[in-house]
Amino acid sequence: MTRRRLGWSDQFRLRVPADPHLSPDGGTVVYVLHGDDEDVDAARSALWLVPADGGQPWQLTLGDNDSAPRWSPDGGTIVFLRPVDGKPQLWALPVDGGEARQLTFRALGAGPATWHPSGTKLAFCAPADLGGEDVDQARRATEPVVTDRIDYKADGSGLLRQLRNHVFVLDLDEGAVPVQVTSGDFHVSGASWSPDGQLAYCVTEGDVTPRSTAFVLDSRHVEGGDLLFRDAYWLPCGLVLTAVAAGGVGHTRLVRESLEDLAPGFDRNVMPGSGGYPGAAPQASGDTVVFAARDQGCTHVYAVPASGGTPRKIIGTPETVISGMSVVGERICYVEASPTSAGDIFVTTVDGGEPLRLTDYGVESLPDVDLFTARPRVFTSDDGTEVHGWLLRDPSLSEPGPLLLDIHGGPHNAWSPVFDGRHFYHQVLAAKGWSVLLLNPRASDGYGEDFFTAGLGGWGVVDQQDFVGPVRALIESGVARESEIAVCGYSYGGYAVCWLTGHTDLFAAAVAGGCVSDLTSMYGTSDAGHFLGSREFLALPHADPARLSAQDPMRSVHRVETPTLLLHGENDDRCPIGQAEQWFTALRVRGVPTRLVRYPGASHLFVLNGRPSHRIDYNRRIVEWVDQHVGGTS
Questions:
Q1: Which of 272, 280, 380, 559 sits at a 20 to 30 Å CA gap from 313?
Q2: pLDDT for 292
Q3: What is the pLDDT of residues 176-199, one digit of tens each?
């Protein structure tokens, strides 16, 4: 077979598994298989099964967007989510054959289910209207939006109006309807059943100063105090919570009901898993707690005694990322991405047995494609700080050439060397003779909490050296040509692009996606504006304008001469599109070559889960812009 490099059309050939779950007997894995449908311009997903001892996977469901599969305690039924009229509803499917049965018919939809240990009921979290179940949502959408809180909208959901996330319980008797078991002007997350059928969940109240409480229904509650709880998990050792500092920024930790840290001294961030942030829910194998954490940009699996102690890594290498995990007895299944696969399912044991690959989507999806692989690099910033990252480059190149510096979001996310199936432009540019530098500057995850918090109150001011120094090192070492340097980034990366082009003339082209350009307007218009101002910038416009201004790219926009492309979702509530509009207008008026591309209906995360056509367009435009404005490319 003739081998070739990755192309744009490969987006529609790629298949990526996610959310694997072992059956109660540990013999079968159900998982979600994701792909893109070019004909309808939409992402698609279905449920698949594969034997845990190895064998041929087979498709279980034929829905367009089936997700969140969960085995019943007896292994005979799988409940899952399938949209009906645009709203996710719970369905039940007998594993040994038969038709799927719709369980919920809520106007606002349902969320992923958790089974009662008896197998007779389900619990789930889902939006609820403070006005009750009978509110006409179509009419609600045209009513004036009245709010007394600053958290009245959320990226991806838009205006929340009277919606709050609450817990529902559904008895599985024929014709039963879900019963709302929590209510009030607060949000609930992390519903989990105890072995004896008690329901635990986390409540977050307040907007300016949020606070958390973990409840065990009809029994007791745990005040978070200085901690904000994210989710609750019933394990054999008792209730375990994921928690972060309530008043600042720091690592997510695992704590017991007593609020004692399950892994004291473990200087890595626990990763429960969420959009754009790989990881997995903590689970138990006997008297061992198994969880995911990030190390040097890669997410791995660790085990710690349920009584507490020092975690040991049981799954993962310096070149792999784990996203999704299921534990039954001594057996663990998980999805692992690598430099040559966007994800495959493996199974192993808690004691670290030899992993068995159950799927081969990396090869099956793109059998004729050769991927470039990134190599680790370590640089030293001007103040002596070590900065780690990866360089993607055709190994046959011997002469200096064009270089793209790509800056991740967060800022507490991190690059890894795996093929993620989203940043196609990395591979396309490498095939055109470019080098692509993926850096994890201070504030990146996986390098300890001091590094994680090193940028607080000093965005741009302290991290600029983490970008400029490594680029200059690659110029001096003969990798990059000084006149052919481009920069791009998304979210925080978009902020950094605006900042760097206003503070250095190093770059011949720039692309800012989902950018942040004006910190004052960002504070009042972003769904995370107050959080960013109070905990990241450590300065509020009305309280410390001078400190905020010192981190503000807009203050230096008059110095920008770099041709800049701006790519932005029109429905972005995290980094509102006005951020891109302001930067675009300032550059256009000054005569700097610039272009603004708006993606209709797209939220902040459209680059990960938006329309396939939008994602391909985003990738393609980056390549076209840097090729146009950086000379000498092949």
A1: 380
A2: 98
A3: 899 999 999 999 999 999 999 999
Residue 29 vs residues 67, 335, 491: alpha-carbon distances, Å: 14, 11, 35
How many residues appear in the chain?
A: 634
Could you tell me which residues are beta bridge partners of residue 579? none
Two domains, one topology: 274-370 and 374-629 = no
First to last CA, the chain: 26
- DSSP code for 557: G
In order of 500, 509, 632, the CA distances from 562 in angstroms are 10, 6, 17
Tell whether the model's pLDDT for residue 391 goes beyond 90.
Answer: yes
Would you call 580 helix, strand, or coil by DSSP?
helix
Which residue, among 461, 468, 552, 561, has the nearest Cα to 515 in the 3D structure?
552
Instruction: Mention every residue, 6+ apart, whose C-beta is less than 8 A from residue 445.
Output: 269, 294, 297, 410, 412, 413, 414, 452
Query: At residue 634, does pLDDT exceed 60?
Result: no
Among all chains, which residue has been given the structure tokens 């311009």?
A: 41
Phi and psi torsions of 316, nearest 5°: 125, 150
3-class secondary-structure state, position 125:
strand
Average pLDDT, the chain: 95
Give the model's pLDDT for residue 2: 79
Write out the CATH class of domain 274-370. mainly beta
For residue 524, give the 3-state DSSP assignment.
helix
**Using an 8 Å Cβ cutoff, are 320 and 337 in contact?**
yes
Please list the residues that pair with 291 across neighbouring strands: 302
Within 10 A of 357 (CB to CB), how many other CB atoms are there? 13
CA distance 340 to 346: 15
State which amino acid sits at residue 133: E
For residue 288, the number of C-alpha atoms closer than 13 Å in the C-beta half-sphere is: 21
Query: What would the two tokens of residue 8 be?
Result: 């744009």
Helix axes 464-476, 492-503, angle to 10 degrees: 70
Give the per-residue SS3 of 451-504. Answer: HHCCCCCCCCCCCHHHHHHHHHHHHHCCCEEEEEEEEEEECHHHHHHHHHHHHC
Residue 174's pLDDT is 80
> In Å, how far from its chain's centre is CA 266?
22
260's CB contacts (< 8 A; 6+ apart) are 308
Contact 608, 155 (CB under 8 A): no
Q: What is the pLDDT of residues 440-457, one digit of tens each?
A: 999 999 999 999 999 999
pLDDT for 583 beyond 70: yes
Residue written as token pair 């093929």: 419
Please give the radius of gyration of the chain, using alpha carbons only, rounded to the nearest integer: 24
Residue ranges per domain, the chain?
Answer: 274-370, 374-629
Distance CA 444, CA 345 (A): 27
**Does the pLDDT value for residue 432 go beyond 50?**
yes
Query: To which H or E segment does residue 548 belong?
Result: helix 545-550
Has domain 374-629 been given CATH number 3.40.50.1820?
Answer: yes
The pLDDT value given to residue 1:
67
State the Cα–Cα distance between residues 536 and 247, nearest whole angstrom: 11
Tokens of 624: 């076209």
CA distance 20 to 60: 13
What does the buried/exposed string (b/e) look like for 320-351 if buried means 16 or more CB atoms within 10 Å of the residue's CB? bbbbbbbbbeebbbbbbbbbbbbbbbbbbebe
C-alpha span between 626 and 630 (Å, rounded): 6
